[in-house]
Amino acid sequence: MKVLVVDDEKLKRMTLRDDLRESGYDVIAVESPLIGLQLLQQEAFDVLVTDLRMPQMHGIDFLKNVKKEHPHITVIVMTAYASVETAVEALRFGAYNYIRKPFSSDALISMLEKLKALKGKTSLEMSKSSVKASVRNPESSLYHTLIGKSQQIQEIFDQVPKIAAADSNVMIYGEEGTGKSLLAKTIHLQSSRKHAPYVSLNCYGLNADAVESELFGDDSRQGKLQLSTDGTLFIANVDTIPISLQAKLLAALEDKSLAVQSEEEPLAIDVRMISTSRENLKDRTRSGEFLEDLYYQLNVIPLYLPPLRERKGDIPMLINHFIDIFSSNQPVRIQPEAVRVLTEYSWPGNVSELENIIERLVAVNSGTDITVEEIPIEYKLPTSQKFDDTPSLTSFHEIIKTTERELIAWAMRKTKGNKTQAARLLSMKPSTFRDTLAKHIQHITLED
Q1: I need a surface site. Which of 165, 272, 338, 444 has the fewest CB within 10 A?
Q2: Do residues 439 and 445 touch, judged by C-beta distance below 8 A?
Q3: Beta bridge partners of 233
């Protein structure tokens, strides 16, 4: 595995380089993102390990540039300033994971070893009930986060071969982390276009100029519409494409051609579009935020991936599946009580969040069973519950008690279990906050 380390802190950079080399990794370590970008143009790397705070270019901007030009490289970010927001932002823009300074080289090596084991799996063992025989082939390992026995997932499994064969445009709706990009890639690999290019673009956070450049290209490079001809173009968060560019995209799809500056005649394109949206595009056409004709062009076959909280019966299967992936070096089990706690959690980050917490639990596990005590406290707290319009049978004191519990739970989730920060967030004394937290944790245990 070839690793590029980018960190302006010389001692840490050199230490990581030497320790990784001793562990058998091919490593180059440089002090600036600009040098890193040059190296990435010249050599192929499997993993990029980069700091987030650097003088020449912020790590997030560096990450965006890298993932734009080298989408297949795995990025691990390291920072002494890691907050929940910073980590989530890095993950949103394509980072595989993050590691908080100060950390030992062994911690990074452990992360790389697990990544190596994961990349080395050419096929994943799945439950017979999780995947239909009609979609079992060497490439169907992409189903590994869509496994499940729930009716919603089984219905999707049933539809995939038919949708793949139809060659029509597909719109996948669902919350972040439900597996929309995974489903899109699976449809492509089951289709007659599977040997043609599969090109992806995430429009979230891009301005109009960036989207136009990515889709249609410029003097220096081809756009993704041209690159994906004869294959599939996957556009994530298509609902965020600026209205000013929607007409241009619609024209290209309707005419099946693209005006290219280097060509005298329009270039013919044959592209299957698979798009995702977290918003109801029909509603956005009514409000004038999305072109109705483009909606009909993209929404030929709509699919909906349900959030994890709506298919809780699949959570135990997913938990064991991720444990199998991340515990390749030593067997790890999880106690039934821990599975119950994780199943009752609401999972706002869906399958992606579940995957991350299982990886964390396996990483810190000493080779024994994963217990309830090892699960971070924010996953044990009650989730928000709404009252109906007439809570006549609920006492005033119970309403206050429930609201207090929800506020404590919200603060703990917001601060990833940091009690001092959570107290500050609620303008409470730390001692008062701890007493209140203890009271509700006790209450949860008694009720459950």
Answers
A1: 165
A2: no
A3: 199, 273
Query: What are the backbone angles phi and psi of residue 272, rounded to the nearest 5°?
Result: -95, 130
pLDDT of residue 18: 87
Which is nearest to 92 in space by CA: 116, 51, 60? 60
CA 167/CA 20 separation, integer angstroms: 46
Question: CA dist 329 to 1, 112, 117, 121, Å?
Answer: 18, 13, 9, 13
Distance CA 170, CA 163 (A): 8
Choose among 397, 395, 406: nearest CA to 440.
406
What dihedral do alpha carbons 379, 382, 388, 390 form, nearest 10°?
Answer: -170
The strand ranges marked E within 212-294 are 232-236, 257-258, 267-268, 272-277
Q: Which CATH architecture has domain 382-448?
A: Orthogonal Bundle (1.10)
Q: Which of 178-192, 239-253, 323-337 is least confident?
A: 323-337
Domain residue spans in the chain?
A: 2-120, 133-304, 311-375, 382-448
Nearest by Cα to 203 from 282, 119, 122, 290: 290
Q: What is the CATH number of domain 311-375?
A: 1.10.8.60
- CA 370 from centre of chain: 24
> Got the DSSP string for 295-341?
HHHH-SEEEEPPPGGG-GGGHHHHHHHHHHHHTSSS---B-HHHHHH
**Tens digits of residue pLDDT in 370-396:** 999 889 888 887 655 444 444 444 456
| pLDDT at residue 138 tops 80 | no
Give 163 or 82, the one with higher predicted confidence.
Answer: 163
Sorted by sequence, the CB contacts under 8 Å of residue 241 that are 6+ apart come out as 203, 211, 235, 249
Average pLDDT, the chain: 81
**Residue 430 predicted with pLDDT over 90:** no
Pure H helices in 307-429: 315-326, 336-344, 350-364, 396-414, 419-425
Q: Any idea which residue has 């050199």 for tokens?
A: 14
Side chain identity at residue 235, one-letter code: I
Q: Which CATH number fits domain 2-120: 3.50.50.60, 3.40.50.2300, 3.60.9.10, 1.10.10.10?
A: 3.40.50.2300
Residue type, 427: S
What is the crossing angle of helices 59-69 and 84-92, to 10°? Answer: 20
Question: In whole angstroms, what separates CA 75 from the centre of its chain?
Answer: 13
H or E element in which residue 281 lies: helix 281-286
Higher pLDDT, residue 445 or 225:
225
Which residues, including other chains, have CB under 8 Å from residue 367's CB and lie 6 or more apart? 330, 331, 332
